[in-house]
Amino acid sequence: MNSLKVCSGKFITFEGIEGVGKSTQVKLLVEALIKADVEVVATREPGGTEIAEAIRGVLLRHYQEKMTPTAELLLLFAARSQHISAVIKPALQAGKCVVCDRFTDATYAYQGGGRGIYLQNILQLENLVQGDLRPDLTLVLDMPDVNFSLSRAKGIGTGDRIEIEELSFFERARKIYLARANGNPSRYRVIDANHSIEEVNQEIIRAVDERFSAG
Ligand code: TMP
Fold it and tell me: Which candidate, 70, 87, 186, 207, has a CA 20 to 30 Å from the CA of 62?
């Protein structure tokens, strides 16, 4: 689809709670972009660089000791700082399209909604670490039945330290995602993930095209 050419130099992020089919949809969009001859960098958070992937390991491993929400938050932003300087900014400056599986909206949702960290504190770190870098488009994959998406995730997930939180944690995370999307409709598109893989992919391509073709 040639219309995807408009994605060059754009920063696109995917968000959503566990089990909504995010990784599959990231892969399909990246394939469509490559097919449309767009230079694309596919990456993820936490992670995306050697140091950031090492921090991911620290974040997701299980410990007897409780990791404080503040330590978790700072580790996420430490990884993000590396990721932005080594991968995201250079790619955008080179005119490539960056597609990232999760970014700072996940911190608002999981650490803010899930763990109860003040959103204002997250905002301060966002400004410190990112300057004015924000995604051009954030696709929030949504399934209203959180219990259903979590049960899907159990079948495919790794059961990492964050994935094993209780239902209410993910319900709070989902609420934050939707609130952020509703508050800024030009940057966000909420995608109903309760359809076939192909239908969701088509909806995402439409959303991307619509967002960037409008200029
Ligand atoms: P993944 O399942 O998408 O690979 O993400 C790994 C876990 O990290 C997932 O449970 C969500 C969590 N996470 C946060 O809690 N805050 C964040 O800012 C990010 C990027 C991920």
Answer: 87
